[in-house]
Amino acid sequence: MRTPLTELTGVAHPIVQTGMGWVAGPRLVSATANAGALGILASATMSYDELDRAIQEVKQRTDNPFGVNLRADAGDAADRADLLIRHGVKVASFALAPKKELIARLKDHGVVVMPTVGAARHAEKVASWGADLVMVQGGEGGGHTGSIATTLLLPTVLDAVDIPVVAAGGFFDGRGLAAALAYGAAGIGMGTRFLLTSDSAVPDAIKRLYLGFGLDGTVVTTKADGMPHRLLRTPFVEGLTTESRLARLTRTLRRTRDFHRHSGRSWASLVADGFRMNRSLTQTMLAANTPMLLKAGLVDGDPTAGMLASGQVVGVIDDLPSCADLVTRIVTTAEARLQAITDVRGAPES
Questions:
Q1: What pTM value is reported for the model?
Q2: Parent domain of 95
Q3: 101 or 227: which leads in pLDDT
């Protein structure tokens, strides 16, 4: 199944495992790569040295291409880009649009640049700056997300740009891959589906918790960090929407301090990153607060003290396959659906 995504990145299948903070570590990324899909290492929750070690570990676990997700607004974004270049990482993905100069530097060294966008105008901007392809995430997706459904957002982006488009938000099986390809996309991106695999390092008890939620089991809230965030509707998350301002401030201060300690970054660099994004001090603190809330749930395994990012597809997932089994069955099903479409088109008239 060759598409512009597979041709640009060198992977066998047009499937991307997205860069989920605390989830997309070396174990999951290498398992995805070995399955023939594109694994994306999440670096936003890593220090520079941690990212260096993580890239080396992925390279020890697989010989296949993989990518790294970078924060375009980070003060050391250029240094991290140089790290990718030095290690020969195939793909650099971004949740926010990287600067034109950064895109050019990565491309000059053979790195494929793939920003994620939530609107056609954003896709047009990064395409004009030289991005190789773009991932568009619809409102069904987990984590930070928009309000427009993938089925409406995807065609507007496809109409707006000439570069390949990867569709994300609401995908979990081969029918979705076939549908995305029929729209004209070059492949699909999945987060929650890869989180819920046996290769994911998320604690098993948390994975089983995910499997118990239905299609109405997620909620989009701005209470975590001031931006729309799709999360599992746990008692902790429900409490975020009702807690007092004082309680929220106390929690934010504590988690911001924890992130400062974990990241090893100075207070000045954290504030500088916020100012680069035109954030107030309060917004910057909330943004630093989010990683620790996610860590409590996804790493420490305590849903009573942290939040669990999730796409709406959690309501239709009921197993924990290996990445190899998942990718194989998605591709097999997609090929069957596309063949069925071809058979219908070629059937003789009665």
A1: 0.89
A2: 4-202+318-346
A3: 101
